[in-house]
Specification:
The protein has 357 residues and is an alpha+beta fold. It has one domain (31-345). It contains five helices and twelve strands. It has a five-stranded mixed beta sheet. The chain has a three-stranded antiparallel beta sheet with strand order 7-8-9, with no helix packed on it.
């Protein structure tokens, strides 16, 4: 009798059954893993907004007013116009984000301090290296980067809420209309972070907990031709591979505030020395639903790749966006939220009840 035992191997059918079972288990586990990862990313996104909201509160406590959502510089840019691009609200709160060193290294009193793409000599050109090395909490980890930006500082995916346009349940007169692309854009001064607008918390008579201060603007929106663009609060929209994405530091180059932003104009247009450059970066005026599509100013006026004044709030989170309210709390606002309610919570003093959102 042989002392060796016969070792029985797997048959082909048994091996296939084991592989099939493993495949089923992986298929069941993958969604759970993906959900866990997205939950972590959403938590980080909420934390970013919480940091920004707390910094704005500390700024207001120190300065007694909020910063302008998009500020201008009184130094001429050169060529036509009398003003240049100033800083965004993010630039102003850097010391309250533990980035005081960055703030002190930036040049503020010069041509276009907020526009690091500006040609030298200018504050913007001087600020380029400092801004690119800084790391304010401006990026949602769920967002897909639109490409590399070698000539700009990092982009921003959180828009300051300048106000709302075209409400039906209340009256909003602080709105300027202007041509942008193929449509008419509208910029409001009724929110908490408007262009050249310095709001105090006591001005928010509708209540800080029901007034939106910052909203996500970093999602993927379909264009009318079926292609997609990535929304960016600091530009408008970008396509993959672009190298012309303006970043978190830029504000506006137009002085004054709505409804006639440049006080030298008298009327809207280019008369009287108006810059006639109606671009307001890192802020938005709520005019459309969350994730409104298609992205086309022929369909929805004010949607533009060049800092569209009415680009919709958007995100890569399923079903809606995160928003930082005036009291610093962070809420998830569903994309099915009634548009009129969205406009109410975007306005600081409209005087009516917003309802559930």
């Amino acid at each position: 009798m042989s002392g060796h035992r016969r070792i029985r191997g797997f048959t082909l059918i048994e091996l296939l059954v084991v592989i099939a079972i493993i495949a089923v288990l992986i298929a069941l586990l993958l969604p759970a893993v993906q959900q866990a990862r997205e939950a972590a990313r959403r938590t980080q996104c909420k934390n970013n907004l919480k940091q920004l909201g707390l910094a704005l509160h500390n700024y207001e406590a120190s300065v007694r007013m909020l910063p302008a959502g998009a500020g201008h510089s009184g130094f001429p840019r050169g060529g036509t116009g009398t003003h240049s691009f100033g800083p965004s609200w993010i630039g102003m709160i850097l010391p309250y984000l533990d980035l005081a060193t960055t703030y002190n290294q930036l040049t503020w009193n010069d041509k276009s301090p907020g526009y690091v793409g500006e040609t030298a000599p200018s504050g913007g050109a001087t600020n380029k290296a400092v801004a690119m090395a800084a790391s304010p909490p401006t990026l949602c980890p769920s967002a897909t980067p639109p490409g590399s930006q070698p000539n700009r500082e990092r982009y921003n995916l959180y828009a300051g809420i300048a106000g709302a346009a075209d409400p039906t349940s209340f009256t909003e007169t602080r709105v300027m209309s202007f041509t942008q692309g193929a449509g008419t854009a509208k910029m409001s001064g009724g929110g908490m972070l408007g262009a050249n607008s310095y709001v105090r918390f006591r001005d928010v008579t509708d209540g800080l907990s029901t007034t939106m201060m910052i909203g996500e603007q970093g999602g993927m929106i379909m264009r009318s031709d079926g292609t997609f663009s990535w929304m960016i609060a600091s530009q408008g929209a970008a396509t993959i591979g672009t190298n012309d994405v303006t970043g978190w530091l830029i504000g506006t180059r137009e002085a004054g505030k709505g409804p006639f932003f440049d006080p030298t104009c008298g009327t809207q247009g280019n008369s009287g020395g108006c810059d006639n450059d109606h671009r307001y970066f890192n802020v938005t005026t709520v005019r459309y639903r969350i994730n409104q599509a298609p992205f086309a100013d022929q369909v929805f006026g004010g949607m533009s790749s060049a800092a569209g004044a009415n680009n919709p709030l958007s995100s890569f989170h399923t079903g809606g966006i995160h928003a930082c309210m005036g009291d610093g709390s962070v809420r998830f606002i569903n994309e099915s939220t009634n548009l009129e309610i969205l406009k109410k919570i975007s306005t600081r003093d409209e005087g009516t009840t917003a309802g559930d959102f």
